[in-house]
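testing teh design pipeline on a random one, pls ignore if ur not involved
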């Protein structure tokens, strides 16, 4: 589906009915990353309206020269929410850069958010200032690599901490599928002009007191896990979990733990909103 925000078209998909959940993916990928890890949670739940968005310049959403900073990107998300669910409170789940933008939504409209889950969120926008571990591979499948091209193998090896055929298939279908169609010219320019907010998105007037979940990969060499500890006190009802055998693609490398912790978060949300 398409939603016109200002003069660009935002691609999105809605599945189910009930409590709205806004799903925000990371940088360069598209909504299929969120679709792949979140939809299995709802196989036996029918009271959630899952709203998957392609951010500007990613997936099938359009880009524009005037989208040149994080504030503008956030305004587009807020305008989109206003058009799709104008009066309803909602949950929000953000992965990587989507986790950074999700905190922008909290900053701007806390009163409408009934719960937040952050998956390997960007905490510090400037990657040179991030506290991250060196990339490490904990489990390697040589049989898999014999089937890949040198380019595919190099790309997967540079990100994956746990490497198997099943994980590679999800990586290819949920992550690389979006990366391949992204507007790279727009994304490179955006990163130079305004990837980070000009304000401190984590300086809240009051703590966010609804159920929260923060999932970090112990071996995440992209955003790390240590920096996220600094924002934990903003969320008075947060579970903070650092998962071993997990890099920046935590949701596919630790699928069972991911599903368990996300389901527990949804239970806390339900309990709070009864």
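output:
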């Amino acid at each position: 589906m398409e939603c016109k925000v200002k003069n660009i078209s935002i691609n999105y998909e809605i599945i189910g009915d009930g409590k709205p959940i806004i799903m925000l993916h990371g940088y360069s990928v598209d909504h299929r990353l969120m679709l792949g890890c979140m939809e299995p949670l709802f196989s036996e739940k029918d009271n959630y309206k899952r709203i998957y968005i392609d951010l500007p310049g990613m997936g099938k959403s359009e880009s524009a020269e005037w989208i040149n900073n994080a504030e503008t990107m956030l305004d587009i998300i807020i305008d989109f929410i206003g058009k799709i669910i104008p009066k309803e409170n909602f949950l929000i789940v953000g992965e990587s850069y989507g986790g950074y933008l999700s905190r922008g939504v909290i900053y701007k409209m806390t009163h409408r958010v009934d719960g937040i889950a952050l998956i390997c969120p960007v905490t510090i926008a400037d990657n040179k200032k991030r506290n991250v571990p060196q990339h490490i591979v904990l489990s390697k499948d040589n049989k898999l690599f014999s089937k890949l091209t040198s380019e595919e193998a190099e790309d997967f090896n540079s990100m994956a901490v746990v490497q198997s055929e099943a994980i590679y298939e999800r990586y290819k279908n949920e992550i690389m599928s979006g990366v391949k169609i992204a507007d790279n010219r727009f994304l490179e320019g955006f990163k130079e002009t305004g990837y980070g907010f000009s304000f401190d998105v984590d300086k809240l007037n009051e703590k966010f007191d609804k159920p929260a979940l923060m999932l970090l990969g112990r071996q995440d060499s992209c955003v790390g896990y240590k920096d996220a500890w600094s924002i934990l006190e903003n969320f008075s009802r947060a579970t903070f979990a650092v998962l071993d055998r997990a890099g920046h693609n935590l949701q596919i490398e630790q699928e069972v733990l991911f599903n368990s912790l996300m389901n527990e978060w949804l239970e806390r949300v339900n309990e709070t909103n009864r």
